[in-house]
Amino acid sequence: MKQLITLISALGILVACAEKKEQATTHSNSLSSEEKIDSTHIKNFFNTALTQGKSYEWLRDLTQNIGGRLSGSPEAEKAVVWGEKLMKEVGLDSVWLQPVMVPHWVRGEKEVANYTVNGVKKDVPVCALGFSIATPAKGITSEVIEVKSVEEAEKRGNELKDKIVFFNGAFDNTLINTFEAYGGCVGQRFSGARVCGKYGAKGVIVRSMTNGIDDYPHTGSMGYGDIPKNEYIPAAAISSRAAENLSKDLKENPNLKFYFKQSCETLPDAPSFNVVGEIKGSENPDKIMVVGGHLDSWDLGEGAHDDGTGIVHSLEVAYLFKKNNIQPKNTLRIVFFMNEENGLRGAKEYARLAKLNNENHIGGLESDSGGHTPRGFSIDANEKNTLLVKSWNKLLAPYGLHDLTTGGSGADVGPLKDDHVTLVGYRPDSQRYFDYHHTETDTFDKVNKRELEMGSASMASLIYLMDKYLYTKEPIKP
User: Fold this and answer.
1) For the structural domain made of 112-267, what CATH number should be given?
2) Average pLDDT estimate for 67-82
3) Considering 302, 340, 341, 440, which one is annotated as catalytic?
4) What is the SS3 assignment for the chain?
5) CA 195-263-343 angle, 5° bins
6) Are the CB atoms for 245 and 122 separated by under 8 Å?
7) Considering the domain 32-102+269-469, what is its CATH architecture?
């Protein structure tokens, strides 16, 4: 009986192998002669990344030896030096620093929050939101009003005076793309204090932007808009589990008082840099394709997924081109943008200088969605070039890159948007991203080496196709 089972298992394996071989043959036969050349180059990118890749060790160095890199900080300054040195080591044709003044917000002492229910004091994991003002030195204490959105806070404006407003709008976990869920409730983080300040609220606490339930508060930017400074109120995030517990306790004890204290402040703008390097195009050196991520990160963790992975992805595109002796026709420019997290100053300055210098950008690719398993790309381009990118599906799908979708690219390449510029965002699997986003757990150990390397190869493959075909052939309808 055991021999029969072994024989059946062996036959099953043989059949599976035969089916895979047949699928590969069928795929190969469906490609034109030119596409077969492209397929070979793409395969070489993946082979090189998975056997000779540098991204993982580069990321280890950035996160372990520098850590979190908030704009204006000494760590951000070290990251600029690190980035310039690494680009030169990879052998780019030219490397330079592009000056930019950036915001300089500092967190100060570790934040504290708690409340008491039935004589029991409950400590709350909390962190200040970027650009928030500090509380008074002794902190603030007040009754709490719970709302689920900025719109609800506006409607209840006459109830907010002298209260701490608790924004408890959770992710919609029925949305498969977690970035959509994030977009659906991040407004309360960014605008909550602006709205509540004008109604005389004492402060704002916001449920962390995550689809999970954990004990880690997620920081992120907020803004006061154009309200007068005397209406500024402190804003902080509390962990998702703390938000669940506070909501429950408020139902049973509606008059409970919440306390929090933070000592953050905004200092004068600080000098910093975008780090820029390029490989000159062999045929069209005046046409530029940008590949980039953001060098800055929040200060709580090591900035691994956000956006250390994007930085090493981008540079490894150039490394993979050089390693495979592929000279781009158009100039390939790698940019480590500064200040994506709390200002986009680097992206705006890059775009300003590009316009000032009459540079001809034809494409841009950004990695700022983490280092998880590759899934595809989002496309922000005119109809012709959107169809062109989508027509590469049969070349990219064998590597898991099935999702070539219309809409969006990235915050840092976004200012380059023009009807003649094809902007693309790298899109890995999003399910785990918001477990770590803007928290102390965004650390090197959360990044899988193979997934990271697959991302670099995915981006190199797309840039290869953009470099070869953009503006040179009519799109094939997918």
Assistant:
1) 3.50.30.30
2) 98
3) 340
4) CHHHHHHHHHHHHHHHHHHHHHHHHHHHHCCCHHHHHHHHHHHHHHHHHHHHCCHHHHHHHHHHHCCCCCCCCHHHHHHHHHHHHHHHHHCCCEEEEEEEEEEEEECCCCCEEEEEECCEEEECCEEECECCCCCCCCCEEEEEEEECCHHHHHHCHHHCCCCEEEECCCCCCCCCCHHHHHHHHHHHHHHHHHHHHCCCCCEEEEECCCCCCCCCCCCCECCCCCCCHHHCCCEEEECHHHHHHHHHHHHHCCCCEEEEECCCEEEEEEEEEEEEEEECCCCEEEEEEEEEEECCCCCCCCCHHHHHHHHHHHHHHHHHHHHCCCCCCEEEEEEEECCCCCCCHHHHHHHHHHHHCCCEEEEEEECCCCCCCEEEEEEECCHHHHHHHHCCHHHHHHHCCCEEEECCCCCCCHHHCCCCCEEEEEEECCCCHHHHCCCCCCCHHHCCHHHHHHHHHHHHHHHHHHHHHCCCCCCCCC
5) 55
6) yes
7) 3-Layer(aba) Sandwich (3.40)
Determine whether 340 is an active site residue: yes
pLDDT one-digit tens code per residue, 158-180 = 999 999 999 999 999 999 999 99
32-102+269-469 and 112-267 share one CATH topology?
Answer: no
The full set of domain ranges for the chain reads: 32-102+269-469, 112-267
In the numeric block, the tokens 């930017």 are attached to 221
Adjacent-strand bridge partners of 257? 143
Which pLDDT belongs to residue 30? Answer: 80
In this prediction, residue 439 carries a pLDDT of: 98
| β 360-366/330-337 pair status | unpaired
Query: pTM of the predicted model, to two decimals?
Result: 0.92
Span 82-92, mean pLDDT? 98
pLDDT higher at 1 or 207: 207
